[in-house]
């Protein structure tokens, strides 16, 4: 049996970033079911830091996380965690009202430029003429998810923490103030505190521990990659998103990637791209841009897992001592990970609350799991 102060279930960005932050004060072991870290959602994302998704709370978590991406701690990484990529949200004439509303919401968090048709096409020449209005945030960041995951792992290990891969937690018991986690291989790990950062499986992990689930909903999202038209200046292209949740695309490793922004309910699983959403991505790309999707180079899908109010959950379960929830990161889990890790460390280690603009109650799992009166 291996003992620690804190066991973290899940070697995605949520689990690894929290583990790295917690390892400053405690001996932490991360248990990951797969043989490699970031195999599920964290390795399948669009890797953007932007404000065009979520609401005020998500934007505040994103804003609080940006300094970490721009200036990671000493020794965290040898390579940049990301690079600048402008974010363009574009609209047709009839969608102008929605663009105005988004502009007023985002402008509290980022410096935006309002673009007319000429400005939209200067920034993104691939768009069709009907994209007549836009807002641009020139300070978007395209993250390197590998560097982010590895940096957190490196920090964890440098502070005497450990990662065990290929260890799917299969049984969870609480005995005399200690959680005992048994993996599918029969190995046993114990600690007084466990962090449930199991992504799409977080409700399943709660059930294993006899803890009431939050009602998490995993939703599948699909991405395809394909060639850009010859002569396209890929490096200059933005992350371009329709004002409605219909399509986004951006340069990706010498090609383009695009998503139809699907949200198909799914069981927790190794999500696969389905033909319908792959075809929808290509169709919408051709509908909104002048690009012809001749051949799809690659495709993948991942799960974005939401709580019932679409805000993440971070906090101790009201119905189980020492059981900490870190779940429901939806479509913003990478870009909010430094702030969420700081929040988890503060709530578990009893340190100062790091975000004055956000209350712990707003993230508390207790908002879904009420104690009987
Ligand atoms: C197509 C797509 C685009 C996205 N775009 C963005 C974006 O631009 N910006 C952004 O910030 N976010 C984006 N996201 C969202 C982001 O990827 C997620 O919010 C984030 O990766 C969630 O991290 P996680 O650690 O909670 O989950 P995961 O990465 O899924 O990690 C959970 C881990 O728990 C492990 N696990 C589960 N059960 C057990 C068990 N019993 N025992 C041991 N281990 C277990 C799993 O194997 C898994 O590795 C996108 C997601 C998708 C799918």
Q: Strand pairing plus helix content: what structural class?
A: alpha/beta
Shape, principal axes of CA atoms: globular
Largest sheet: 9 strands, mixed
**Mean pLDDT, as a whole number?**
97
Measure the end-to-end span: 38 Å
Low-confidence stretches: none
Which percent bin holds the helix content? 25-40%
Radius of gyration: 21 Å
Strand fraction: 25-35%
* Ligands bound to this protein structure: flavin-adenine dinucleotide
Strand tally: 22
Number of helices: 9
In short:
With 373 residues, this protein is α/β, with parallel strands linked by helices. Helix content is 25%, strand content 27%. Bound molecules: flavin-adenine dinucleotide (FAD).
Topology:
Elements: E1 2-3, E2 6-9, H1 13-22, E3 28-31, E4 48-49, H2 56-70, E5 82-84, E6 87-91, H3 96-106, E7 113-115, H4 117-123, E8 133-137, E9 141-143, H5 145-158, E10 162-164, E11 169-175, E12 178-183, E13 188-191, E14 193-196, H6 202-208, E15 217-226, E16 239-242, E17 248-252, E18 255-259, E19 264-265, H7 275-288, E20 296-306, E21 313-316, E22 323-327, H8 337-349, H9 360-363
Parallel strand pairs: 1-13, 2-3, 2-14, 3-10, 6-16, 14-22
Antiparallel strand pairs: 4-9, 5-9, 6-8, 7-8, 11-12, 12-13, 15-18, 15-19, 15-20, 16-17, 17-18, 21-22
The structure holds flavin-adenine dinucleotide.
Flavin-adenine dinucleotide (FAD) binds next to α1, β15 and β20.
């Amino acid at each position: 049996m291996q003992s620690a102060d804190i066991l973290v279930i899940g070697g995605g960005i949520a689990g690894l970033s929290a583990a790295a932050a917690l390892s400053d004060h405690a001996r932490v072991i991360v248990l990951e079911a797969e043989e490699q870290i970031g195999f599920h959602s964290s390795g399948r994302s669009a890797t953007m830091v932007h404000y065009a998704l979520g609401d005020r709370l998500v934007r505040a978590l994103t804003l609080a996380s940006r300094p970490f991406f721009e200036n990671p701690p000493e020794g965290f990484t040898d390579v940049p965690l990301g690079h600048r990529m402008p974010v363009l949200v574009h609209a047709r004439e009839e969608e102008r009202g929605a663009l105005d509303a988004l502009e007023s919401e985002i402008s509290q968090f980022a410096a935006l430029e309002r673009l007319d048709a000429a400005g939209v096409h200067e920034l993104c020449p691939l768009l069709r003429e009907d994209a007549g209005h836009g807002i641009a945030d020139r300070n978007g960041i395209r993250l390197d998810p590998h560097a982010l995951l590895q940096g957190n792992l490196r920090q964890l290990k440098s502070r005497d923490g450990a990662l065990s891969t290929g260890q799917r937690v299969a049984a969870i018991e609480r005995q005399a103030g200690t959680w005992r986690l048994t993996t599918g291989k029969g190995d046993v790990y114990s600690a007084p505190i466990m962090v449930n950062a199991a992504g799409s499986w977080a409700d399943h992990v709660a059930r294993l521990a006899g803890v009431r689930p939050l009602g998490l909903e995993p939703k599948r999202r699909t991405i395809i990659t394909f060639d850009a038209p010859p002569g396209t200046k890929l490096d200059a292209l933005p992350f371009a998103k329709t004002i409605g949740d219909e399509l986004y695309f951006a340069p990706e490793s010498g090609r383009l990637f695009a998503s139809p922004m699907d949200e198909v309910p799914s069981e927790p699983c190794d999500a696969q791209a389905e033909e319908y959403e792959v075809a929808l991505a290509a169709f919408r790309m051709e509908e909104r841009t002048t690009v012809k999707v001749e051949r799809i180079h690659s495709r993948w899908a991942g799960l974005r897992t939401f709580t019932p109010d679409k805000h993440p959950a971070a906090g101790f379960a009201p119905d189980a001592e020492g059981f900490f929830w870190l779940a429901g990161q939806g479509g913003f889990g990478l870009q909010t990970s430094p702030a969420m890790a700081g929040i988890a460390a503060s709530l578990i280690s009893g340190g100062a609350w790091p975000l004055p603009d956000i209350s712990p109650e707003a993230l508390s799992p207790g908002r879904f799991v009420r104690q009987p009166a």
